[in-house]
Structure of Adenine deaminase:
Amino acid sequence: TDIDAFIAGLPKAELHLHIEGSLEPELMFALAERNGVAIPYASVDEVRAAYDFSNLQDFLDIYYAGADVLRTRQDFHDLALAYFDRAAADGVVHAEIFFDPQTHTARGIAFDTVIQGLLDGMAAAEAKHGLTSKLILCFLRHLSEEEAFATLAEAEPWLDRIAGVGLDSSEVGHPPAKFARVFAAAAGKGLKRVAHAGEEGPPEYVHEALDLLHIDRLDHGNRSLEDAALTARLARTGMTLTVCPLSNVKLCNVASMDVHPIDAMLRQGLRATINSDDPAYFGGYVGENYRAAAHARGLSKDDLTMLARNSFLGSFLPDADVAAHL
Ligand code: ES4
Ligand code: ZN
C-alpha cells in the first residue's frame, strides 16, 4: 500500500533491539550444527511453533535457552551482521543495540569473545550498508547487584566502544532501585543510561528509573500512561520512549494491535519511537512494527514521520549527526 511504501522510504534509527533476540531459527540450527550443540527442536517450524508466549517470563525462558548456540567470536559476528542486513532492508540507518553479556559469561563464554564478535559485525555493517551503530550493555535484573558490578568491571577495557548501560530481563520483583549504585558507577564512567520500565511493571518502576537510575531513555514505558502526572513529566522533559508494538502484543502486555497506545502516546506529547525488541521471536523487524502499528491504529504520514524523527532525536548520536538525519 501507499503507507507501506511511505514507511519503507523513511530513514529510521532503531533504539530497542536485543541482539540475542534477532537469532532466527535458521541461524540457530546452523550454529548448533557448527558448534556441536544439541537443541530441543527437530525443525525450524518446531522452533517457530514454540514461540507462543503468555508473558515476559515465558519468552525469556526460551530466549535464554536459544542463546546457548552462540559460542565463538564468529557466531556473534554472524548474528549481528544478519540483524544489520535485515535492518538495512527496512531503512534503518543507525541502530543502538543491546547485548546481555551475563547470558554468555554464565555459560563460560568470555566477555571479550562476545563484544569482539559484535564489534566485528558492526564494522561489517558500516562497510556494507553505511549503517552506523552503538552498543548498550544490559544488566540482567533477575541477577544480583554484585553480579552487575562484576559485569561492569569486565567491560572496563571496552568502555570507549560502549555507549551506555541498560537493564533488562524479568521486571516484576526486580525494581530499578536494586541497580541504583551500579548505574551511578556507570554514569561516573561517562556511560549513558537506559532501562526497561513499565513493560510489565507498575508506573512506580518508571519513577524509580527516572529518579534513582537517572535514565537518558526509557525502554517500553507503556504503563506510564496509567499515571497522568508521570505521563506529563515524560512529555515535559522530552524523554524518549522506545516502544515495541509487536513485542507488546506477543507478550500479552497489549491485548491486540487494534488497541495499542502508540497513537495515544503521540497525542499526549510523548517522544515515542517504534522498535523491534526481539524480532526473531516476536514476528517482525522494525518495518513490520511500523506497518502493523500504522494499519491497526490508522497512523498518518505525519505520525510516521514524527516517529522516525523521534528515533534520531532520542539516539545517542552527536547533535550534528542527529541534525544530518532530520
Ligand atoms: C526483553 Cl521484551 C524484553 N523485556 C525484558 N527483557 C528482555 N530481554 C530481551 N527481551
Ligand atoms: Zn527489550
In short: The chain has 17 helices and eight strands. The mean pLDDT is 98. The longest strand covers residues 132-140.
